[in-house]
């Protein structure tokens, strides 16, 4: 496969996969299916149905596995700004809810949860 083709979602290289992509091929990095509209060279968010192929069936979920016969992987499907936005949102959620390791400092909610868990031991 061409070294230019990368996953539409994570930007990971797909050079380990062979063309044509199988309907069930997954990205080796993020494990998302690749036979999706967002990965196709016909995908265009600025046209009706978001597809430049007039004869293709309408697919509502552009990031879901589909059976489109017109699928051709695009070498420009990855949008780095979208990944940055998703990473930023994940960091914000992590800051809001924490990761369970807050430097060992327990909150009153942690104490209550611990007390409740002790009841079932």
Describe the structure.
The protein is an all-alpha fold and 121 residues long. The protein has helices at 80-97, 108-119. The termini are far apart.
Our estimate of the beta-strand percent is: under 5%
The residue ranges in which pLDDT falls below 50 over 5 or more consecutive positions are none
Report the helical percentage. Answer: 10-25%
Q: Summarize model confidence as the mean pLDDT.
A: 86
**What is the number of helical segments per DSSP (H or I, 4+ residues)?**
2
> Cα-atom Rg, whole angstroms?
21 Å
Write the topology of this structure.
Elements: H1 80-97, H2 108-119
Keywords:
121 residues; mainly alpha; 2 helices
Give a short overview.
This protein has 121 residues and is mainly α.
């Amino acid at each position: 496969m061409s070294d230019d083709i990368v996953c539409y979602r994570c930007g990971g290289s797909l050079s380990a996969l062979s063309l044509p992509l199988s309907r069930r091929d997954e990205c080796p990095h993020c494990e998302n299916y690749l036979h999706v509209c967002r990965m196709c060279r016909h995908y265009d968010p600025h046209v009706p149905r978001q597809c430049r192929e007039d004869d293709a069936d309408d697919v509502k979920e552009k990031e879901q596995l589909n059976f489109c016969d017109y699928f051709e992987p695009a070498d420009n499907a990855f949008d780095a700004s979208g990944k940055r936005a998703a990473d930023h949102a994940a960091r914000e959620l992590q800051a809001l809810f924490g990761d369970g390791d807050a430097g060992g400092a327990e909150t009153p909610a942690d104490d209550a949860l611990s007390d409740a868990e002790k009841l079932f031991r």
